[in-house]
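Request from the bench team (R.T.):
"We need a structural guess for the complex before ordering more flavin-adenine dinucleotide. Sequence and SMILES attached. Just send the tokens back."

Command: build protein-flavin-adenine dinucleotide structure.
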Amino acid sequence: MKTDVLVVGSGIAGASAAIRASEESDVVVVTEATRPDETNTGWAQGGVARRAPDEDADAFVDDVIEAGAGEGDEDAVETLVREGSRVVDDFLVEELGVEFDENGDGFDLAREGGHSNRRILHHGDATGRAVQVALLRRLAESDARVLEGHTALELVGDEGVDGALVVGDGDAFVVEAGATVLATGGIGDVYGRTTNPPGATGDGVAMAALAGAEVEDTEYVQFHPTAHAERGFLLSEALRGEGAVLVDGDGRRFMDAYHEDGELAPRDIVATAVHEVNRDGQAYLDLSPVIDDGFADEFPTAYENLTDEETDSGLVPVAPSEHFLCGGVVVDENGRSSIDRLYAAGETARTGVHGANRLASTSLLEGLTWGLRAGEHAAENAAEPRSVDREPDAFNGDMPEGFVDTKFDRLQKVMWEKAGPVRDEDGLREARVELQRLRGEVKSYARGRLSPELHSLRNAVVVGLLIVEAALENEETVGCHRRVA
Ligand SMILES: Cc1cc2nc3c(=O)[nH]c(=O)nc-3n(C[C@H](O)[C@H](O)[C@H](O)COP(=O)(O)OP(=O)(O)OC[C@H]3O[C@@H](n4cnc5c(N)ncnc54)[C@H](O)[C@@H]3O)c2cc1C
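Reply to R.T.: structure attached below.
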């Protein structure tokens, strides 16, 4: 199959890139997802930040830079705030018709931790679903050919990237492309304990790294402080914003000992506190201050996920969980990576926006802004697709039973224990040895086989190593990277 632009992924970054690119080029979208709830985008809750009507853009810029511990790239942040705010209105609201909640004065703007103003558009507490459904509807109306339930296994091309090897519907084939955009989302499965939907194995980051692209800032992994300790789903920050408090097993509040803002301290501080309490006991989010008659309407996602016992007692066991990778494939203002004809956008990319930590509700904005930019640039500059001399290998020999699951368990255990919310040099060195061993074991099986599960495992191990290497190199505690020794 040949195309001008190949887009891998159909979350906010991939779908935006494909919609924009298809306005002037032939586009193929390869995506594992078959439903809106199979992307991180579909699971986003709080909303999309954009410059409030009454505010100076500089205030929003300052908030993003401050959240990123001063490590962000100012030009990228300016683009995020100025252009991003415009495309939220022009593309999401006008073109796609996403219906954000309104009050009598226009949009009902929410405020979240780290934001100095009310500037977050939302659709109840299920904003991502509304955005994802609208994107997929528009994508289906476009001229892009969308291959759902298909997996990109690896990039192809000798000098630069000329497309990808893809499997799906019992078939394996190469998509030859003049430009390739990777938008494969998050890395939750590298840790196992995660807020991400299953299948988030950082494929794009790993495939790009294996093809020789520059990858940076991978030590900056954001852990959300309040995921359900047993069932993993996210209990949004907005609950704490509305008055929910964190307590230990004896019902004592503990956040005041960590930060003057208590429960509304920055995410990494709350995550560390919950992690420490959980070492010897169990932290709970006490929802009793917010459980009232309006709770089910205001927080329908939380309400649906909680048991009757939890809503009656108000006490929900919580633990930090992997939530977002701030770093990734290094890209410029148009989403171009360091190697020819390869782009990245969304959580796969490192645009420089987040620095060492991400401000709440800015990742949908980033995926949208860079998705559209990458789609436009790729369409305008796509080379003539080159022929790739690569017959997909047909070898799918047996693997030991439980091979993939066992290796994933090993990976996730070592990543959580040694490269989780709190890290030290000895632990990271041990993790590196274990991951190098794992990589060797997996590589020999992945070579020549066309199994998406095996390639996901290989990719997750590669991403794990990128995180550990970067975390070892960066000896400072900064942003969401916490080094204790
Ligand atoms: C529970 C939760 C709540 C969140 N809340 C918010 C919020 O309120 N505001 C905010 O801004 N951000 C939020 N985030 C973060 C945000 O949702 C994500 O960072 C963002 O949606 C990522 O978009 P993306 O397009 O990069 O990836 P995704 O939306 O994850 O899309 C990735 C796509 O790539 C496909 N894919 C992956 N690998 C392959 C492969 N090898 N071959 C083919 N296809 C592949 C997937 O099927 C999917 O279609 C939240 C995240 C979670 C998990």
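Two things stood out. The longest strand covers residues 171-182. The chain has three domains: 2-220+326-381, 224-320, 403-473.
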